[in-house]
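Posting here for the record, re: zinc ion.
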Amino acid sequence: MSNLKMKEAALIYLDRSGGLQKFIDDCKYYNDSKQSYAVYRFNVLINPSDIVELDAELGNHILHQPLKAAQVFQSINIVLKLTHLPPLPSYCLDLCEFPRDYTSQRFYTMQGIVIAMTTVTKYTQGARFLCSDEACPLSKGFQYIRVHVPGATESATVRNDFLCNLCSSSLQEDRKFRVLGDKQIVEIITAKSLHAFQGYCNNQPFRFQSLTVFLRDESVNKMNIGNEYKVIGIPTCVKISQTAVCVEANSITFCIPKVPSGISDNFRCLLSLTSSSCWKFTAILANIFASQIVPPGTYNLLKLCLLMSLVQTSDRSKELENCLDILIVTSDTLLIDRLLNFSINLVPRGIRHSVSTEIFPTLSRNKYGTGAVSIQAGSALLAKGGICFIGDLASHKKDKLEQLQSAVESRSITVYISGKKFGDDVDQQMTFPVQCSFWSFLDMDSPSRRNIQKTNMLIGQMDCSLIPANLVESFALLINCNESSSCHPLLPTVQHTLKKAIDPEGLLYLASKQFTTEDFEKLLAFAKNLNVEFSLEAERMIHGYYLASRRIRTDSIYGSKLSASALKYLVSLSEAHARLNLRNKVLKEDVLIAALLFETSLTLKYGAAVFCVAPNAVFPFEQYNEEYLEQRDVFLTECQQQLQQFIATYGPGTAIFASDE
Ligand SMILES: [Zn+2]
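Prediction output follows.
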């Protein structure tokens, strides 16, 4: 096909797609601008499907030789912006596969999670050069124009050793014609590499192999740390201290995770069998959950809380309110560690923080030498929309714990970039939302803890000294998990451990065969995407309990122990219980479970209060057959009445209360 025919097709495409009108508008913008430009830059939006339909050869040319194809559009600096690529394997660049094609300079699509990004700096879009010999005809006019092409470094566009073709004198840049654009460098990794390290606890330092993506002009600030994106771009090889494959982004789209259309048949059957009760389904779930790690019937309270925290993880970007942070006090750290590692694997973003890495973002100078500062994500931002399991709370240094507390309370983290340190004129700061739930545990048997015994403990209160009280308070749920307590009988756990030692891969219980890990994964993915709303009754009950609790847990010196976030946690817990029941409506029965869990946690933090809840109130029995489930429902109904009585006595509307809120 002749070049002329291709130009004709390009013109027809521009005409039909509205590109010509956009071209005219862009020209107007340049015409009105006071600045002198060496180069006019135009973006042309290309829909590959439409263009292939119109002219197959031009379409093919754009997809496979994009740099040459831009010339068909007849201007100096044309950037073809693709809406998408054909969904064919040959257009995908798998970040796990080697070797990577960086020689053919064509478009590929790739998908990855942002683990680092730089601040925005300038680059040269285009520059005008003149021959330094005034007698040479090329010392005037626009004969030497240099334009940035995808994948080129700054020195390819602007340098001081270019020579005149006519007289070999050196070329000098006419600075007032230089056109600058914005540039940002991000690093992405494939989501698969996160799975490889999920639940993997090794204290050896490691780093994910990342791919560098250059964002320019309108693409700058389109990517956020922790999010997953589809990027269309042209791979290229850049030589820095070592040679690296990079991609210059052409188009960026946010990846929306797939939601499963349903749950497994066995769970569906279980749900319908238990439909008469609001409490049975979740009780059975907690009972059989993680039977690979602990025998059914043990650690039920903790397992219910883990499931509720998992179901409150969110792929939707803007929800910060849902987080359910859990702190477990235990003397059996090995088992708890295993249980938590197992659980984080059930959501796409369950990150096991390794002590050799950082929880929160860190700064470094970026290796491409552009003066920009690179911000590395850290575990918390990588766990965006998921769980960040940070292991033993006491293993973190004091300053990190302070950072953690501030992040948990504000759900954001701010990074200060000192201009002095990174060679910039001004200080900068960047704030990132922290959209994950934190899980951690405290070892009650650690030698440093055993010797100290607080003397003035209140009934039911837990001794968490050595960890700042404010930090313990900032976790939504504090859970006591000791095998010696009545809720955690020792014998089944011992039997389980022995059987596992004999047959590590074996499924020990009927429940593990009927409800597999994949079934739980699917159930959680389905449940967490349910939109839930509160019934009026449930809403009243939450507010009633919150206000009543605030009032009875107030002392004259420090005011109320219940912060405003308590209400947020109660809402999140109630939602979680409704979601785990696969219900769209939050009922007062869900609020009861939320209140019991929250009150148990409050008792551990501050001691028992008027609304007295036994540590095993949510799971009063050791076994869960049909008969016990029925008895538990009767027991919980009584609890519900007590809660209503408590609200009626101490809640809003009672005389003493009027002055408080
Ligand atoms: Zn010359």
